[in-house]
């Protein structure tokens, strides 16, 4: 047996609360999208840093090892080259991290604050 519910009328408090809840959810979603868009430059910077790191490693690793092998044993030459490339990757990661940390969290804090203000004004 199915229950039939009558649609709520425009002046009905239930309908008003549903409309308000939809608006709050939509505002929260929009705020989160806006904050996520602010993070795109930091993500791009991190991707570029990673791509350049891979390209630089692929292009120069063997050359550096060969040059270092003139003065060092092959194992130590490889270790020194890897340490230098790792340091460069770490510096790029730190730059991306600093850019990321300066951004607000991707949470709907402004929308939540507005809802609390509206609710406290109604009391």
Describe the structure in brief.
With 123 residues, the chain is mostly helical. It has helices spanning 13-69, 74-101, 109-122.
Topology:
Elements: H1 13-69, H2 74-101, H3 109-122
Keywords: Membrane, Transmembrane, Transmembrane helix
Transmembrane segments: 42-61, 76-96
Protein name: Phage holin family protein
Describe this protein with a few key phrases:
Phage_holin_3_6; mainly alpha; Phage holin family protein
The fraction of residues assigned to DSSP E strands is: under 5%
Number of continuous helical runs: 3
The radius of gyration computed from the alpha-carbon positions, rounded to a whole number of angstroms, is 28 Å
Tell how many strands the DSSP assignment holds.
0
Mean pLDDT: 80
Distance between termini?
Answer: 42 Å
Q: Helical amount among residues, as a percent range? A: over 70%
Overall form: rod-shaped
What letter string, H or E per element, gives the SSE order? HHH
Strand-pairing-aware structural class = mainly alpha
Biggest pleated sheet: none
Question: Which runs of at least 5 residues are low in confidence (pLDDT < 50)?
Answer: none
In words, what does this structure look like?
The protein is an all-alpha fold and about 120 residues long. The protein has a domain at about 40-100. It is built from three helices and no strands. The protein has helices at about 15-70, 75-100, 110-120. Helix 1 (about 15-70) packs antiparallel against helix 2 and helix 1 runs antiparallel to helix 3 (about 110-120). It is rod-shaped and about 85 Å long. InterPro entries: Phage_holin_3_6.
């Amino acid at each position: 047996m199915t229950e039939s519910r009558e649609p709520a009328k425009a002046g009905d408090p239930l309908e008003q609360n549903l409309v308000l809840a939809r608006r709050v959810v939509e505002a929260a979603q929009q705020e989160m999208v806006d904050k996520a868009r602010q993070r795109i430059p930091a993500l791009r910077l991190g991707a570029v840093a990673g791509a350049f790191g891979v390209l630089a490693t692929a292009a120069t690793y063997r050359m550096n090892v060969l040059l270092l092998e003139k003065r060092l044993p092959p194992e130590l030459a490889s270790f020194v080259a890897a340490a230098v490339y790792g340091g460069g990757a770490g510096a790029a990661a730190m730059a991306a991290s600093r850019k990321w940390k300066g951004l607000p969290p991707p949470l709907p804090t402004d929308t939540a604050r507005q809802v609390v203000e509206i609710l406290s004004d109604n009391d």
